[in-house]
Give the backbone structure.
Amino acid sequence: MPPPPYLTQAEAEKERLTERLEECLRRGDPKAFEKILKTLFASIPYEWYRSNEISRYEGYYASVVYSFLTGAGLEVIAEDYTNRGRIDLTILFEDKCYILEFKVVELEPEGKALNQIEQKGYTRKYIGKFAKIYLMGIEFSKEQKNLVGFEWREI
């Protein structure tokens, strides 16, 4: 049985992080979003990576981000289908749409994540539906177990 919330800071920390997340999305601040994700991955215990190969796979990183965002109560679409492929993750927040593509740099050349969003025309699905659309190419390293590349563009 978990301790009552008044005995831990977990609930207060969750609220602060959720507020920071919502505020950066509201402002359209991808750099703040990057910092939040780096903090998230830095807080995952090293022991969870030992004796397994989970950090080799893009799906691991996408799952952690997806779980984090949905846990914060955001509207998130995983494997968002378009006529040209699948967006790894889409966040719909107020009048903004965030299109995220994930890559593991040891498996793909650096800079490929943002390039894929642009080449596949993933934004076409949302043009005219949102005031602003942000493209985010997010690259992870299986060695560093964190973000190592973060490119973004507003359209």
